[in-house]
Amino acid sequence: MLTKDDIRGVSAMIPTPCKEGQGGWQYEDSVDLDETARMTEQLIAAGIGSIAANGTTGECAALTLEEKLAFTRTIVEVARGRVPVFAGITTLGTKETVRQMRLFKDLGASGGGFEEQ
Hints:
By secondary structure, the protein is an alpha/beta fold. It has a domain of about 70 residues. The chain is built from three helices and four strands, in the order E-H-E-H-E-H-E. Strands 1-2-3-4 form a four-stranded parallel beta sheet. Strand 1, helix 1 and strand 2 form a beta-alpha-beta unit. It is globular, with a radius of gyration of 14 Å. It starts with 10 loop residues before the first strand and ends with a strand.
């Protein structure tokens, strides 16, 4: 279990890279997971203390749940426990927030942050 002592240093709010030419609403699977892996490794190598994904600094409002899960899964897999990974969850209701929190936990996120609207 993650404790307050496991969270140190600076937390990076990782941006969500889109595949070239696929930034429009009509595209599915638009997140560049290779670039996500590269950025994650670069942040960890630079000494970042934790990574936060799917925040309002990224494309979270424009992504499907499947894209958010794939994006976060890539970060978790690259991080391999070297730093905590937090998943941002912004939904329109408590039931969906809890459902998504469970999904992100199941794929290995250390925790989550949410904002109900």
